[in-house]
């Protein structure tokens, strides 16, 4: 189905499931419909199953919008109690169109719960309380995380009662709109993804995937693995390579142990979080005040000290159990925290009963170049009257040199190193590969037989969706154009909107002005971010004959980070003029003699997950006479 046809169907007010492969234009079509509704003053709720997907459409998560949080089920009394929350009640009552993007990652039980909540709060027994619901997504993505022993049949949203009750019109977009700039053997990445969807992967496609292991994609890339154990190992190894003081943050919890355990599983941040300057991190919570979402990535560039008598940070007592910890963690406003300096931490002469509790928290430079401070956040499970049953506090970050394939869903990556050799779940390979836009950014270390297979239930459903979409297409092809236009206008009026051309034109004019202002603002304030990557900035300083230490001081980064930049620069441009940074010949010789000796011994414990020699064996072999940073620098100048 074409995008224009799907848009016409959406405008009639029918409930719709919008699907199609990557690049088919699902998000574009949704945005066109959203703009259409907003221009006609129709109240529309823009939501998604994940924070990342929600930010793509300037929306919120469906869990937050609907008031269900992380819960799978709620008692009737709990649902009725939602009416007492004034803002929630008004939001649900006023909404006329509900959009849920990335529906594949929403559990069937949660879709049923949202359906029930809308019925109760809106006092309307029709599906989803009588509003138009638009579901969008691709069920070849991984299913949502469920309870132990749950099958995909139990998880997929299309198996829910709400799905059937909504009587959705299926609109399966089939045109490809994503431009493919790079091909191999006349195959683009989209060609390969479509072969996986159709269970017809060719020998040529296999060869292209194998050959990608030789692609040079630079040092600044995301690593995707199928198992947490690999991700944790890589992240811990990378963290250990960073010099500088480590900051450790202990999670705390209070309340029902079972609910605390549920919160921990949903939060996915460690109970003990260790960070250093230079650490790659990812936010694990949507924080509107910071304009970051679950999945936003960045790098720790420094630590700042919080200092407040009225809002003390908690003290961690390792002897206490999680459930017995009752101290409150508080987050301070981002701009207020930024004004405080590390000098605050030096004043330790205050009396015990007057002491100000001081804690250093990380400043994160996001991939966009913007900097924010990550302070503790809380996750809460409440009872029917809003009282907390369980609360969990932690700095909302996790290490992110490597992430799991499951966590990558919803992301778009320019470059990724992917390891699918231990794929254990159908669909993991498809999800990992579809994070990229073309083959030039792919470095696939390997894959197994499961990697390119998809869930049979999802494949069967996809086939049926194609058939249902064709039926819908045939029905609409028979309709008179004037009748369709009238249906569009009737739905707008039904929703309390307007078809006044002057109002619509005024809205469109304001949106265009807003767009131009935003583009101008971004051009002026973020020009350096757009034109100069963090490595480009380092490269420019080093080209001016600054030393590693001087560059680190100028950029307020760790020396180890500058050396990683230098390594990436040298890989991209072996002739980059940086001989002023080369250590003396004796040091280089000593390091490489140690390097060669360790290679000859070939002790597995001396190598990291990527097959590179760890720094510590070299450090030990040189009798701790050469610093880690000098070792790093010498290795960069390897002949």
TrEMBL record:
Q: Which CDD domains match?
A: DEXSc_Pif1_like, SF1_C_RecD
Ranges where the record places region Disordered:
307-352, 506-525
The residues covered by the AAA+ ATPase domain are 12-221
What keywords is this UniProt entry annotated with?
A: ATP-binding, Helicase, Hydrolase, Nucleotide-binding
Q: Name one Pfam family in it.
A: PIF1
Against SMART domains, the record matches this protein to: AAA
Q: Where is the composition biased (Basic and acidic residues)?
A: 308-319, 333-352, 506-524
The record's annotation in PANTHER family points to: ATP-DEPENDENT DNA HELICASE, ATP-DEPENDENT DNA HELICASE PIF1
Protein name (record): Helicase
Q: Which organism is it from?
A: Lwoffella lincolnii
